[in-house]
Amino acid sequence: MGQERDVEMKEVADISNSDEHSSPAPVSKTIPTVQSLKEIVSMIEVGAYSKEVRRIARAVRLTIGIRLKITTSVILSFLSTTLQPGSEAHARLTSYLPKVDEKGNTVDLAEFPPQGSSKSPPEVEIYCYLLCLIYLIDQKCYSQAKACSTAGITRIKNMNRRTVDVLASKLYFYYSLSYEHTNSLSEIRGNLLSLHRMATLHHDELGQETLLNLLLRNYLHYNLYDQAEKLRSKAPRFEAHSNQQFCRYLFYLGKIRTIQLEYTDAKESLLQASRKAPAAARGFKIMCNKWAVIVRLLLGEIPERTIFMQNGMKNALVPYFELTNAVRIGDLELFRTVTEKCSNVFSKDGTHNLIVRLRYNVIRTGLRNISISYSRISLIDVAKKLRLESDNPVADAESIVAKAIRDGAIDATLDHTNGWMVSKETGDIYSTNEPQLAFNSRIAFCLNMHNEAVRALRFPPNSQKDKESAENRRERQQQEQELAKHLAEEEDDEF
Question: What is the pTM of this model?
């Protein structure tokens, strides 16, 4: 406590000795943030001159960490001390910034004349574009952010430097985000395709990952799933450089596979995206779980209750929990009620059309429960229990039962003469080959795992390097022995 008081007293003393026209508040809040930005810029300069991309990536991470502390005055002060005096970038970026700060006070641009150095690398200019763009999006100035991002993308097109790739990938993301907030994503689709082609030619793999995800998001935003699949299948694939971009790719791939009725692959992609996503990306995890729940229901599975009880996801997954309960029970009336009550949520999530496909799953579940409960039941009673609402419910019930029998959902027969559904008696499953097949599949899985483990032990990584080092060691020892023998012979000759 004593140290904290000493620090506070020193700050007050410094403020009291400052210019009487300056206000204390900006000194205590603004200067540390500007100093942090200057340190980040110095890190970018070192990374640019030494061609160390990791330094620039760390600078971007630090910027994201202090983005909430940035104000209009901070950015203006930072731009005036960073960019070249009278440069076009300084004039353009200051024109995008709001003329009123967060407290409603008017900001005088004359108080921040440009004083920057003329020896800054181009990475610093791109960083200034990125910083202004992030601030404008945080302040919900989407029209200014749209213009700022367009100017930044135009500037990046004239560069081909590996140290710019990290900054460019972030700029691509916020470029698309600013157009998405203004409902004009279709305007930049051609530009994103040209940027992706340019990144491919420049071997910018991080830019290719980012732009591919942005293009997929662009297509899926307008429900252009065929175009998205064509682009995804023809785009070059390589080892992922960013975990966040890889998670986004898996999520978009899961959505495409779901629409294409490839539910098994979609389930794997969505679950993998949810597992690999960072813990802080709660909204992304919620969306992955929503789509994964729908896909599992379409596969005929019932998700575990623990999925809906995860911390921070309970309220968001309540509509999907009620939907899962309706499908599990097989109550068509409850399913219809949940669909109507939560239609806005399903439409916002883009899962409404998928939920329409679940209607047959609900009917099939209810029909399975009926076949287990009754050895023989009339089609009229089947229609009543399933709550089929149509002009001819008996005919609909008959077609539904026939389709369920053909698909193997129920083990029954249809008596068209009397209008009955006759369920077959449940036999002893151990008298069939089912247990043998299940046991055989488990044994095969264990054997495959054992073979992979043995193969990994038989061919350890870097075995060739170890072998070469051992050979070099033997050659060196042999040479040392020959040299020692030669020296001993020379000594004998002297004596």
Answer: 0.72
